[in-house]
Every structure is written in C-alpha cells, then in structure tokens.
Amino acid sequence: MLYPQQNALRNVLDLSGIWQFQPDPEGRGLAAGWALELEDPRPMAVPASWNEQYADLFNYFGLAWYLRRTWVPAGWRGQRVWLRVGSACYQATVYVNGVPVASHTGGHLPFCCDITEQVRWDEPNTIAISVENELLPDRVPAGGHSDLGLGGYPPTTYDFFPYAGLHRPVLLYSQPPVAIEDIAVSTELEGGDALLRVVVRAGGGTTLGSVTLSGHGEPIGAGLSFQDGGATVQLRVPEARLWCPADPWLYELTVHTATDSYTLPVGLRTVKVTESALLLNGQPVRLDGLGRHEDFYVSGKGLNLPLLVKDYQLMRWLGAGSYRTSHYPYSEEEMQLADRMGMLIIDEAPAVSLQFHDEALLPGLLRQCLAGLDELIARDKNHPSVVMWSVANEPLPASLRARRGAPLADAEAADEHGRVFLTTLLRRARALDPTRPVTLVAVMGAPDSWQAEADVICLNRYWGWYVDSGQLAPALAHLGEELDAKWAHFHRPLMVTEFGADTLAGLHGEPPVMWTEEYQAELVRGYLAVAASRPFVIGMQVWNYADFAAVQGINRVGGMNLKGVFTRARQPKLVAHVLRELWARRETASGTSGVDQLPE
Ligand code: BDP
Questions:
Q1: In terms of residue numbers, what domain contains 363?
Q2: Is 67 found in the same domain as 191?
Q3: Which of 91, 203, 390, 482 has a CB 3.0–4.6 Å from the CB of 348, allowing a cystine?
Q4: Which of 175, 201, 224 is the last residue of a domain?
Q5: In whole angstroms, what is the distance from residue 528 CA to residue 523 CA?
Q6: 371: how many CB neighbours lie within 10 A of its CB?
Q7: What's the pLDDT at 567?
Q8: Which of 230, 239, 245 is nearest to 184 (CA)?
C-alpha cells in the first residue's frame, strides 16, 4: 500500500480538521441514519484520540461516529478516487454518502478503499466513520479480562492507555484509472556497487514502464516490462552512497508507466546478523536508544507533528540512535522522518501481552496477529530505517500468569501453544521479508524455546525494579549472570529492549531509593556498564523515552507509567543527562554523531 502522493498525475486531499462526533453506546446510529447525519454532534479533532478531548469520553471505548462533508475536486473526474484511514483504533467502518465502503479491524495500520462509484461531483459528499475500541479477550491486544489483566482500570492486558478514535489522517486521494499499485525495493552490495532490486505492481493493461534512480551521481534508469501486472528490474549503482545513521542518504526512485508515476525515497543499505553482531552495510551497528509510545496530553495517540519533531530533536540531544515502535506500528509520517534522520528502528507488530491458555481463542488470535504482521510489512517494507521486525512484545508464559493470580491449569500445554504460535509469527515475518532479521521481545521468565527462531534475542529486564526492588548491586549481578546464560544458550546477538525504573520527576534521594531521579540514573548507568563488558550485547534500549499514560492502578501514579527519561511534557530527568554523557558525546560504531539539530 503506497503512501498517497501529490504529483502531476495524482492528488491528495487531507481531511484532517474538526469533524462531527457522537458516541453511540446503544449501537442505534446505523438504523437511525447516522451515516448521513448525526443527531446531536459535537466537535472532535482528527487526527487525535477522543478520550482527552471531553471528560465524559475519557473511559469511553464503545461505538462512536465521526462525520464530515467534503467536495471532491472537479479536476479529479476521470480518475479513481480513494479514501484512506491512517489508523482507526480499534474497529472501524467507513460510509460514503450512506454506503458502507470498508471495514477494518486493528488499530495502528492504514486501510483504504476505492470510492469512485460513491462520489458525487455536484454536491458535498458525506464521509462517516464508525469506530469502537471495546476491550475484549478475543482481540489483539486483549482487554476486558477478569483474571488476565494488570488489575487496573480500564481493564487491559497491557501497560498503556487504550486510546480510541481516528489517530492518523484521513486522506482522499486520486489515482489514474490504471495505476502503479505497489513498489518493493531491496539492496545487495557488490564491492562498492549497490544492486537495487525493484519490484513493481501495476493495474491491468500495463505493459511497459521505466524506473529512474536519482539523487547522487548520474541518474540510473531501466525499462520495465510487465507481465500479469508485475515487473522486476535490478539497477546497479556504482559507488553508491549508502544509507547509514551518519549519512542517511535518500535517493529518489521514480517509477513511470504509460498512465502513472510514483516517486519513492530509497535508502541503499543491507542488514545482516552474525552470531554476535548486527551488520549495516557489512559494519557492526548498535541499537542503543529507547522504547517509546505514541502518547501526549490531549492528542493521546493521535499524530502530533510538532511533538514528533521535538521528540527527534530530544533523542538526538540524548544521542539515541535507535528505538522500538513499542508496542504497535507508529505513524507513516514518523517512519518517513526516521528514514531522513538515520534512526535505526525495530518495527513492532501490534501484538502485546499475548496469552495462550485458552485454546478456543488461539486460532482467532493467530489470524489477527498474522494479519497485523502482513499489513505492517506491506506498509513499512521500503523504509531503510527499519532494521528488524518484532513480531510481538512480551507474550506471557503460564508461570507469569500464575504470579498475577491466574489459575495455572496445564501450564506446559499453554507454553507449548505459545511456542508454536510465536514460531509461526517469526516464520511468517521471515517469509514475507527475507532481507531483515526478525525478533520477538521476551518478558522475564519466558521459555527460551519461544525465541528459538529469532535472529536477535531481545529481552525486557526489570532487575532492580519489579525484581530485586531497591537493591541495585544484586540486580546488576543478576543481569550479568542472565546475559551470560542467554548468550551461552543462544549464541546469537542479544539486546535489552526494556529496562528502567519509575521515577517521580523532582523526587531526590541520597542514598538513592526507588522513585527518585538518582535511583533511575544509577540503575540505567549500571545496566549500561554491565552490557558494555559483553560484546554480544548489540543494544540497550531504556524504558521509556517519556512518561506515558497507562491505566489507573496501584503501581501507576496518576494513571501514568513514570519510567520516562523525559517527563510527559518532555522535560529531562537526571537520567537524561547521564545518557547524554554516555551516548551523545561519543561516536558510536553505528556512526551516530550526537548532532543536536535536525538537518534541513
Ligand atoms: C514491560 C512491558 C511494558 C511496560 C513495562 C513496565 O513491555 O509495556 O510498560 O513492562 O512495567 O513488561 O513499565
């Protein structure tokens, strides 16, 4: 699914703005004609979560309707007109002039539909989108459990607020009747040359086309000859300017057919794993940085462009060269920025806190996970910043469920279901994209067998917080022992994808005790020191970049997870200065330079 683009042959109309909105707790909107007109609408900003725009909607996750009217420009006549929703959390149905045109399940990934037949050219068109984010046990991620959740409110199985609504732009766009439908690029290196493989899919009747790669040195072109809608070509790029963190160079690949053209930014680079390293263009790179969330005051999980630019500036200030899109795919706009900024991304599928004890649910859960993975890889496959796919975060082993008070009936069988399930996901990701490593992010106590097919062993570790609370010396000793044991077992690159401590900004202590800024700073410094003496550890990602909204509970002050290096308002805690000393002031092997400013 190509990101819509404006050029001489294609048009884009962004429908971001204030929409009409009405909650529909009784589900009577459809019968009452809300697809054409809401009864009692109130204003609602799109993109944004609805929860923080009105106090009465904070904990509302049921059905709601968004509606707006728009003219379709007369100049688009004769083209195909599409509507694209960047992210509707969680389940959505789109109506154009009262006609249902598309439905989608799962937040965080785009969907689109051809609405040419529904468009009215002589009057405004009514676009209505019904969205609900019910927290249900048979969804991925799951909610509404009695015995499986974190024990807070609202009842999720995961530690972030279940924001709901239209989180990313809704776009109208036009394409020529016979359009370029998809482009996939991948790179191999041969001496100083890069070999760029380009696979193009185009609409029926396309026979010939061309590609041109420009942006450095002489433009390189080649012809395309389509068969059954597909064409493949390989471009040899002599003395290629390879994409890397220190020089995230983007070429422009323009594909032409007789009727259409599309320009894709392309970074030429390869990613490989060895027994103990991740190689970018054949050179070892580190994935030092952060876990993150899409989260901010009022906008919730909605795309917030100024925040995005600021976050990148702050990550640069810190010297962070990498992050994971924990625990769901982030906006496409963010992925584009990552490409430009040379960030190294672990791109995570929307599968957090999977549980395997209920056999009846497993086929449905697997179907949803596979769909999420397919959509994610289809969306993000061309981003050079994506260096690894994560198929899931912290699937829960039976032993952990038992610690949380859930009955432990047939633990072995549940863990075996988990192994089969997760192996299926890892294999699917590898089959869809053999050019990138795949991983699975494991919670403390997860069976090693779950990661048997992962290329990189990603571990979330909370020694010194949930375990060995308040005792940094034994915590760090346990961390070291565990890393050595995992290395001895797997002989594969390892990284700690989460570690950290909840910290109330402004709370200090000497000696450092839990929740103080000093405790967080010492814990993070200690973890980095333990990892530094172990060359098989290829990255350390602090949990979390910033304080974020979680669910209300006895572990979450004000409903917030306070493990941020920055506060939710993006002010640095003490640990930010520690990280800056350790990261920003050194030239990492990955070439991260610690530049403070965004490039032009
Ligand atoms: C890990 C989860 C993450 C949580 C974190 C925490 O992966 O989503 O926010 O713990 O408890 O288990 O802070």
A1: 273-592
A2: no
A3: 390
A4: 175
A5: 9
A6: 17
A7: 98
A8: 230
587 flagged as catalytic: no
Cβ of 347 closer than 6 Å to ligand 1, yes or no, is no
The single residue listed with the structure tokens 């949930």 is 466
Q: If you measure from the C-alpha of residue 568 to the centroid of ligand 1, how many angstroms do you get, rounded to a whole number?
A: 16
Ligand 1 centroid, distance to 462 Cα (angstroms): 9
Query: At residue 360, what are phi and psi to the nearest 5 degrees?
Result: -65, -30
Same domain, 64 and 91: yes
In the chain, how many H helices and how many E strands?
A: 8, 32
- What pLDDT, on a 0 to 100 scale, did the predictor assign at position 592? 46
Cα separation of 294 and 546, whole Å? 10
Give the model's pLDDT for residue 287: 98
Ligand 1 centroid–CA 549 distance in Å is 12
501 falls within a domain:
yes
Residue closest via CA to ligand 1's atom 9 equals: 159
- Assigned token pair, 141: 């991620």
Closest C-alpha to ligand 1, atom 11: 159
Residues 127 and 113 reside in one and the same domain: yes
Please pick, among 348, 498, 517, 522, the residue that the annotation labels catalytic. Answer: 498
Q: What's residue 148's pLDDT? A: 59
Cα of 561 vs centre of ligand 1, distance in Å, is 9
pTM (two decimals) = 0.96
Q: What is the pLDDT of residue 596?
A: 43
Geometric angle at alpha carbon 288, from 472 and 519, rounded to 5°: 25
- Ligand 1 atom nearest to 327, measured from its CA: 8
What pLDDT shows up at residue 593? 43
Do 241 and 167 share a domain, yes or no? Answer: no
Domain boundary among 121, 145, 175: 175
Pocket probe mutation, ligand 1, options 353, 394, 459, 498, max atoms within 8 Å of Cβ: 498
Ligand 1 pocket mutation pick from 561, 562, 565 by most atoms within 8 angstroms of CB: 561
**Ligand 1: centre distance to CA 383 (Å):** 27
Distance CA 446, CA 486 (A): 12
Task: Say whether 117 is catalytic.
Answer: no
Q: How far apart are CA 196 and CA 187, in angstroms?
A: 5
Rounded to whole angstroms, how far apart are CA atoms 37 and 313?
Answer: 43
Report whether residue 353 contacts ligand 1, using a CB cutoff of 6 Å: no
DSSP string, 118-139: G--SSSPEEEEEEEE----TTS
- Provide the H-helix boundaries in 327-410: 332-341, 362-380, 398-403
Residue 317 has which token pair?
């200030």
* Cα–Cα nearest to 451, from 395, 410, 408, 409: 395
Residue 584: CATH number of its domain: 3.20.20.80
- Tally of structural domains, the chain: 3
Say if residue 221 is in the same domain as residue 115.
no
Positions of the chain with pLDDT under 70: 146-150, 404, 406-408, 586-600
